[in-house]
Known about the structure:
- The chain is mostly beta strands.
- It has strands at residues 4-6, 9-11, 17-19, 23-25, 33-34, 58-61, 70-71, 75-82, 87-90, 95-104, 107-113, 119-121, 131-138, 143-146, 150-151, 158-159, 174-182, 185-190, 196-197, 203-207, 211-219, 223-227, 234-237, 252-253, 260-267, 270-277, 288-291, 294-298.
- The chain folds into 2 domains: 30-129, no CATH class; 141-300, no CATH class.
- Helices cover 0% and strands 45% of the residues.
- The relative contact order is 0.11.
Amino acid sequence: MDADVVNVVATSADGCSTTSNDIAVSVVATDGLWMGSADADWNNPVNWCANVVPSTGDITISGNSVHAPEITSDMNLTWLTIEENANLVVKPGVMLEVTGDVVNDGKITLESDADALAALYLPELPTKAGIGNVVMNMPKNYYWYIGSPLRSEVDGKAKASWFGDLNNDPNSIDWVFVLRYKNGRNQWLRVVGDIDLNEMEGVSTWYYQNKVLDYEGEINVGELSRTFAEIDHHLFANPYPTAIDWEDPSGWGRSDFGNTMWNRVTFGGERTWQTYNNGGDDDPGCMLCLLRRSVRLRKM
């Protein structure tokens, strides 16, 4: 309704009514307001309230959106507001960075493939990082090291059940392991019932069928820390939805921290081990690694 004329009819409790004079109503379209009227295409002008794809970095995703917007190429926003019942989807291999502030009363969905992760860069202390939804496609018949950028809304813990169906069936199609202390040393232990994962703890998985991980929780932001009691190898998981630069010492507190990490990579179509040493190699970041002793992280 834009520049329309309306009349208001008021009726009293005893049935008497009266009609107002003409009232001119004009609604001004809001720049940067996503309504998703046509489809999920961010670059379709019809999906935006003003019928113009915004050039500004101030974006609001309406809770009345018909379609959730999908970000299919790297994007930088200044301010992001996601209203209740709204969803913003970041597609595999795509990075979304918000430099100003975030108020997420809805959900941010990170869709990833095993070799193409969605990345989300948020301010260190946003007003509300809110709820994230991880949807990740995992190929069968490979070992994977996986961590989570989310924590449970209920108790603030990541859950082993997010990574597979947990049971002690020797014919199970999902196998999930943790590297924990038992009988005097850290060793691989199969998880057969849901457990809380420690801060920055990863899991190792094997799937006999292609697996889609799909879980929700609060997005990790701010400083996180953990002290490892045992001098041993530990499966460390990046707790953020962004890559951590192994070479850059800023934002890390790494007392008694080994410089070498081991991770699994795909090489020549096969999954294999890879070692990496902090000391000059040019690497954009590590999502998972093994370490010794203690670490304190702050998302930069």
